[in-house]
Design a protein that fits this description.
It contains eleven helices and eleven strands. It is an alpha/beta fold.
Length: 349
């Protein structure tokens, strides 16, 4: 069987675009500016997957004012917000969620923020944005970071991978967080489980998924992707389905991303088979991961799946599920994030 891959293996197969690293903008701490703002998108709670809603809503549960269309601070005008609050920290949701480059999309046009360049003039305001899929539109995202005068980026994936795919970022100004769940909607741990679930979009970004999809003899239950939309979150139903299985296949894409499915599957009691790089450690639950190489033979994968199902231990998986529900509950993870933002703010640059 092929040895699981490392982050260096992932980077060796990925092009790094020629987008210059951005210069760090100045920041002058002002003791009078202590308000924290999270500029979010209310409609993200209705997206197919709702983690984008959880991060800004979670910050709002940890001392931030939640601002944006149809949110607690119901305005999208940055100039108005900065006149209303004595803001020292501002987190702006990923621009693709409120002003996407592709106009043919499902996002809510009413969520678009106005006067964003105004924040770049405020040297006493520590400005961050969320960068999710770092391989997408690096030039566009570099321009977005310049427009807001970005001091730091919040990222879900390993900083080495993000820095390679988005070379305009400054590695010392990346704050890593993790995908979250709402532990209150995770079903009670079921002892009635069978088999292995295979789910997710099938595209060139997921070569292992493509190979699995083509191999019809694997002992798996296949769940088609519902498509991306904002017609209501599919997350509660997905968690309910996961709770019926012993094992979940959670591929990490050609980019080696630590995707939310890993957290969700563990929280619902599944063992996780994944091609996540071995040196990208998932806090608290890494022991639940059965790592494979994306080029694994289908015969070897069949064996891994069968052994994972056969050796399933209910007590162990229930414990790991409890760990995941505690650590990755969105208010818990965003409390850690808020602390890390404040730490970088105090130690910038």
């Amino acid at each position: 069987m092929i040895t699981p891959r490392t982050i260096s293996d992932v980077l060796a197969g990925l092009h790094s675009p020629s987008v210059p690293r951005l210069t760090a903008p100045p920041f002058q701490d002002d003791p009078q500016s202590r308000d924290c703002l999270a500029l979010g998108v209310a409609s993200m709670k209705e997206h197919m997957t709702d983690e984008g809603w959880q991060i800004t809503h979670g910050l709002a549960q940890n001392g931030y004012y939640h601002a944006g269309y149809d949110l607690t601070c119901n305005t999208t005008d940055v100039r108005t917000l900065l006149s209303r609050f004595k803001a020292g920290t501002l987190v702006l949701q990923d621009k693709r969620e409120w002003s996407p480059a592709d106009k043919n999309n499902f996002r809510d046009p009413k969520a678009k923020f106005k006067n964003v360049p105004h924040m770049a003039k405020c040297d006493n305001l520590f400005r961050l944005t969320i960068l999710k899929d770092s391989h997408q539109n690096p030039e566009w995202h570099s321009q977005a970071a310049t427009e807001m005068g970005c001091h730091a980026w919040i990222v879900y994936y390993h900083p080495r991978i993000v820095s390679h795919l988005a070379p305009y970022v400054r590695p010392q100004h990346l704050i890593r967080t993790w995908h979250t769940i709402d532990a209150t909607i995770v079903p009670a741990f079921s002892t009635e489980r069978e088999g292995c679930l295979f789910s997710g979009a099938i595209s060139n970004a997921y070569p292992l998924r493509q190979r699995i999809e083509q191999e019809k003899s694997l002992p798996i239950t296949r769940m088609p992707h519902p498509g991306y939309h904002r017609k209501g979150s599919n997350t509660p139903e997905f968690l309910r389905i996961l709770n019926n299985f012993k094992v979940s296949i959670c591929t990490s894409s050609r980019y080696g991303y630590s995707l939310r499915k890993i957290i969700e599957s563990t929280a619902c009691g599944c063992r996780v088979i994944t091609d996540l790089p071995v040196d990208d450690i998932v806090p608290g639950i890494d022991d639940n991961l059965i790592r494979i190489h994306p080029d694994i033979s289908m015969q070897d994968l069949r064996t891994v799946i069968s052994e994972a199902c056969y050796s399933y231990n209910y007590d162990r998986q229930k414990h790991l599920a409890e760990v995941a529900c505690t650590l990755y509950h969105y208010t818990s993870m965003t409390a850690i994030l808020a602390h890390n933002i404040d730490h970088l703010r105090r130690n910038y640059p």
